Amino acid sequence: MHLIRIVGVNGHRKTDLLRQNVLRALEALQLHIPLVEVFEVDKMMQLGISGIPALTIDEEVVAQRRVPSVQELKVLFENKLLPQSMDDAPKKYLIVPTDFSAASYAAFQTALSLAPLLKAGIKVVHVYSGTEAAPTGWSLRGEYKVQDAYQEKLAEFIGGEPGSRAQGGTLQTTVNIEWEAAPGLVDEVLLELSHEPWVEMIVMGTTGSHGVAGKLFGTLSSTVSRLAHCPVLLVPKNYSFRPFARILYASDFDSADEATLQRLKSFAGLFFATVHFVHVLDDPNANYDALEERIFNALFEGKEPDFAFFMTAIPGASVGEKIHEYAHQHDIDLIVVVAPRRDFWSQLLHRSRSKEMILKTRLPILVMHPTDPTPRG
Questions:
Q1: Residue 214 dihedral angles phi and psi, to the nearest 5°
Q2: Apex CA 203: angle with CA 198 and CA 208, to 5°?
Q3: Inter-CA distances, 246 with 15, 49, 178, 208, 329, Å
Q4: Which of 45, 108, 207, 373 gives 103 a disulfide partner, CB atoms 3.0 to 4.6 angstroms apart?
Q5: 282 by DSSP, 3-state: which?
Q6: Residues 178-206: pLDDT tens digits?
Q7: Greatest mean pLDDT among 136-150, 182-196, 318-332
């Protein structure tokens, strides 16, 4: 629901001090609010900044030409960021499947950072087999059932680090969080949820404790990310969220349809991101000029984009390898792919070397679909 921007000069003493004070105030209040740094003059003008360093919350300039103390910021954040009423429940949710592993906890932390921007709540889901026993270390008593044990374990997962029983840790956040344990098959449950109008996105880890998410590009996540009716964000193990300042969009003719590009436009605008449209020329006879014109026309349909963008064509037979090479060279924060066409998807995910590179990537991958809803912000 909220976004904090620090506006100033990269490496300047006062800008660095403002960042430190903001982080300390957020930590003291145990708030998970995305933090973006703005150094570009044109973006400062868009935000209405007249002096630096400056601080904005959402679109409001709350301080400029000075560095507020940690105590001042705590009072400011309490008034601006803490919920004043529980009646304002979110209408959209991010689904976070979990097997209680560190990988799924990284996905949960990422969802906590994204949810305010998307004005969404979070629903954490654990899917277990109908014949499954209680989780390790838990005993069933009387009417206390397997589902009850997993519901309690989900509550502890949300409140603290995975892998430990309750130790008094609590999570304080403005994000509305729900959780559910349900019997069934993981892919079937997630695909069914993806059709629900209240589901904004599925956020899932790329490795897991029981090999469920570890089969990422073989069965479960390949199926979910390709067939879901909502965006799927694949989060690598040990990933720490940082705002998506540079987004790589893996383009081909299927991904250049106007509806998909409008969804990308909305999502990228939330971060004031720079978008790199990268097309791998695996077919030397492909008409890249036509693709470039198609993307350009779609971006400037109606309102012009709120972000800078580049269009690049690079030669190569392996789509996955070239995409990841480019991402590394240009310090990309997020890779976006569209999954309508089986052969493009196969090149990106199912060739052994490409699969290995993607499994080892430290970048999240957002999989979009022609049927996805437009992100709300």
A1: -65, -20
A2: 135
A3: 21, 23, 31, 27, 12
A4: 207
A5: coil
A6: 888 888 888 899 999 999 999 999 999 87
A7: 182-196
Contact in structure between 97 and 224 (CB atoms under 8 Å): no
Same domain for 213 and 121, yes or no, is yes
Place of tokens 């999240």: 364
Of 24, 55, 80, the residue at which a domain comes to its end is 80
Measured CA to CA, the distance from residue 261 to residue 374 in angstroms comes to: 10
Q: Which strands, in side-by-side order, build the sheet including 309-315?
A: 177-183, 121-128, 93-97, 199-205, 232-235, 365-368, 334-338, 246-250, 274-281, 309-315
d(Cα 283, Cα 316) in Å, to the nearest integer?
9
Of 38, 199, 33, nearest in space to 116 by CA:
33
Helix H segments across 163-303? 186-194, 220-227, 258-269, 288-299
pLDDT at 212 exceeding the cut of 70? no
* Distance (Å, whole) CA 67 – CA 86: 32
Q: Are residues 270 and 341 in the same domain?
A: yes
377 domain-assigned: no
Does 361 map to a domain?
Answer: yes
> Is the same domain home to 150 and 73?
no
Helix runs in 96-145, H state only: 102-118
SS3 assignment for 224-248? HHHHCCCCEEEECCCCCCCCCCEEE
For residues 126 and 217, membership in a common domain is answered with: yes
150: CATH: 3.40.50.620
In terms of Cβ atoms closer than 10 Å to its own Cβ (0-12, 13-18, 19+), residue 223 is middle
Domain that holds residue 63: 4-80
Distance, CA of 367 to CA of 346 (rounded, Å): 14
d(CA 36, CA 244): 9
Question: Do 103 and 75 reside in the same domain of the chain?
Answer: no
A 10 A CB-CB count for 122 gives 23
**Residue 35 falls within a domain, yes or no?**
yes
The whole-angstrom separation of Cα 236 and Cα 362 is 6
How far is Cα 7 from Cα 36, in angstroms, rounded to an integer? Answer: 9
> Predicted confidence band at 266 (pLDDT cuts at 50, 70, 90)?
confident
Same domain, 257 and 222: no
Residue with tokens 């309102």: 303
